[in-house]
TrEMBL record:
It comes from Ottowia oryzae. The lineage of its organism: Bacteria, Pseudomonadati, Pseudomonadota, Betaproteobacteria, Burkholderiales. SUPFAM superfamilies: Acyl-CoA dehydrogenase C-terminal domain-like (SSF47203), Acyl-CoA dehydrogenase NM domain-like (SSF56645). InterPro entries: Acyl-CoA_Oxase/DH_mid-dom (IPR006091), Acyl-CoA_Oxase/DH_mid-dom_sf (IPR046373), AcylCo_DH-like_C (IPR036250), AcylCo_DH/oxidase_C (IPR009075), AcylCoA_DH/ox_N (IPR013786), AcylCoA_DH/ox_N_sf (IPR037069), AcylCoA_DH/oxidase_NM_dom_sf (IPR009100), Mito_Isobutyryl-CoADH (IPR052547). Residues 30-111 form the Acyl-CoA dehydrogenase/oxidase N-terminal domain. Residues 282-399 form the Acyl-CoA dehydrogenase/oxidase C-terminal domain. Belongs to the acyl-CoA dehydrogenase family. Residues 139-229 form the Acyl-CoA oxidase/dehydrogenase middle domain. It comes from the Bacteria. Transmembrane segments: none annotated. This is Acyl-CoA dehydrogenase.
Length: 406
């Protein structure tokens, strides 16, 4: 495994990026560094800017962006290595990085409809300045766009510009983003829907600091209000008829791109929450090895009952790793599974990650629930896995339909 040079500056070139993987020592160092401030970021809900400075200095912000525009062109397996290490240290940082990775990976699809000039601009902005990007999709009335419906955010054509107005929620990482891919509909007689590229510094954009959730508190997933935000016409980077956004609509290139993007999303989010469970496992093992009640006269780790339950926990995490490794392998080989099959992996991996942390809590009792220890934070964070698209009910319904109709 080649080492990603620690001296990398903002001038990282694609030739500098390792093709076999990221150096394990670098990832371990970053993970430990992020863990030292994780509880503080969680307590106050602060954006982990120091973590992203370290990621940029290590050449990892633009790691998956297309090499043609100066990015690293990393594979899904390589991206998983990074996300696993970051999430083990501070998972909100990992979530923001996942969202940036997903947006940057989509720019490299053969079917990407983004203008080349803008694709190159956002990637080079990441390479040179560590610029982050995320999609703003969810709205108070619409909910998740994955469940259908036209967005309430409207883009109106005004001369050589678009004027965009709307209200978005769950805008992960907004305090640190440079670019926003805003999901909106046009005001045309036959509305089109899609993404409009908006600079974070655009006039008319206002953030409502409303994020105060149980877990992933440092993700800064606040609300954003857009009031007559103006962008050039070519910033309508991917706008289509609503029916063309269906998973099986469009050309075969579009269908393949959707399957690949879904696999990347499932693999990286699954990796994040599996890493949270892994951090809980590591704390549990140390606790059991050192906790020696007077009534026992030996560490809890010596009890057969404890050993059996830790073995069950290991089985859950081992299964997760096998599933995620295989998903990355097939996707990198150009054969991502169908979206409903990727969804099943998300369902199993996140369910088992939650179960693993719950097992750790059962074995530690009050110690595990104390704010003096990180286990309760790991539990709050891992529960957030249930809300990411696709949600469990949508996954199981899609698979059920597939089985019953075949």
């Amino acid at each position: 495994m080649r080492m990603l040079p620690k001296h990398l500056s903002s001038q990282l070139s694609s030739a500098d990026v390792p093709q076999e993987g990221v150096d394990a020592a670098l990832l371990e160092r970053l993970s430990r560094q992020f863990a030292t401030s994780a509880s503080e970021h969680d307590a106050v809900g602060s954006f982990p800017r120091d973590n992203f400075d370290a990621l940029q200095a290590s050449g990892l912000v633009a790691f998956v962006a297309p090499k043609a525009y100066g990015g690293g062109g990393a594979t899904l397996a390589q991206a998983r290595e990074v996300i696993a290490a970051v999430a083990k240290g501070e998972p909100a940082t990992a979530l923001i990085l996942v969202m940036t990775y997903l947006q940057r990976h989509s720019l490299g699809h053969a079917g990407s409809r983004w203008p080349q000039r803008l694709r190159e601009r956002v990637v080079r902005d990441a390479v040179g300045h560590g610029a982050l990007i995320n999609a703003l999709r969810v709205e108070p009335a619409l909910g998740s766009p994955a469940r259908g419906g036209l967005p309430g955010t409207v883009a109106r054509r005004d001369g050589d510009q678009w004027s965009i107005s709307g209200h978005k929620i769950y805008t992960t990482g907004i305090d640190g983003l440079s670019w926003l891919a805003v999901w909106a509909r046009t005001d045309e007689p036959a509305p089109r829907t899609g993404f409009f590229l908006v600079p974070r510094a655009a006039r008319g954009l206002r953030v409502i600091k409303s994020w105060d959730h149980l877990g992933l508190r440092a993700s800064g997933s606040h609300e954003v209000v857009l009031e007559d935000v103006r962008v050039p016409l070519d910033h309508a980077v991917d706008v289509r008829a609503p029916a063309e956004w269906a998973p099986h609509a469009g050309s075969q290139t579009d269908v393949d791109a959707h399957a690949s993007q879904q696999a990347w999303m499932i693999a990286l989010l699954g990796t994040l929450y599996d890493a949270v469970a892994g951090a809980a496992r590591d704390w549990l093992v140390e606790f059991l090895r050192t906790r020696a009640p007077a009534s026992l006269g030996a560490p809890l780790a010596t009890l057969p009952r404890i050993q059996e339950q830790v073995g069950e926990l290991e089985a859950l995490l081992h299964t997760n790793r096998v599933l995620l490794d295989e998903l990355a392998r097939t996707t990198d080989a150009g054969s991502p599974p169908a979206p409903h099959e990727s969804g099943l992996i998300k369902y199993v991996v996140t369910k088992q990650a939650i179960q693993a942390v719950e097992t750790a809590l059962q074995l530690t009792g009050n110690h595990g629930l104390s704010r003096h220890n990180p286990l309760e934070r790991h539990y709050r964070d891992v529960l957030c896995s249930r809300i990411h698209t696709p949600q469990n009910d949508a996954v199981l319904s899609a698979v059920g339909r597939q089985v019953l109709q075949s």
